[in-house]
Amino acid sequence: MLKILLADDHQLVRNGIKMFLESEKDFEVIAEAKTGSEAIQKNKELKPDLVLLDISMPDKNGLEAAPEILDAAHEPKVIMLSMYLDEQYINSCMEAGVNGYIHKGADQEELIDGVKKVMEGISFYSKDVRDVMVNNYITSLKKKKKQLAQPKISLTKRELEVVKLIMKGYTSNQIAEELFISNRTVDTHRANLMQKLDVKNSIELINKVTEENLLESD
């Protein structure tokens, strides 16, 4: 018999999930909790095989309670239940080490399937959650591809020399003296740099050079 602790601060939600779970002859909800702290305490006392945790609960929320529950000596599995389909919540749960993340919009079959897979040692994420993870991954790949497709900014040796002196706070006169060139030539290099880097002043220029690691090409 699979012993389950169900933690959610809404009685009606607990009733519905419990009914779904106990439709399986080998599943038993041995206790319920309505706060994170209560879930931690009942996990220690009753040693369930699986804890179903709602993310949003008073006292301690599911994310705060999960590490303490997972660290228990009897090594229970933990599945997070949530209405949230936000990448931040999903990533936070993965970092916390939970064994699964099931959206509360999932149906009974998906919930039961998730519980069985987790108890077999397989991480489980409901379809809505997987869709978010895949879409975010694709968006990230497209962003990286776009960044790689952008032409690399290339500065001449003289432009790099001028940039270094600008970053040291040199004035145009000081740069001209340092490089043995005319003030007009310095102004020309400044104008070319502003155009190449698409900036309007020296502060933006310095920030752009730093962000793009342009001095590494020297």
From TrEMBL:
Source taxon at top rank: Bacteria
Domain (HTH luxR-type) ranges: 148-213
RNA-binding is among the record's keywords: no
Keywords, sorted A to Z: DNA-binding, Phosphoprotein
PROSITE patterns: HTH_LUXR_1, HTH_LUXR_2, RESPONSE_REGULATORY
GO BP annotations listed: phosphorelay signal transduction system; regulation of DNA-templated transcription
InterPro entries, A to Z: CheY-like_superfamily, NreC/VraR/RcsB-like_REC, Sig_transdc_resp-reg_C-effctor, Sig_transdc_resp-reg_receiver, Tscrpt_reg_LuxR_C, WalR-like
Name assigned to this protein: Response regulator transcription factor
Limits of the Response regulatory domain: 3-119
Organism annotation: Marivirga arenosa
Keyword Plastid belongs to the record: no
Gene Ontology MF terms: DNA binding
Post-translational modification 4-aspartylphosphate, affected residues: D54
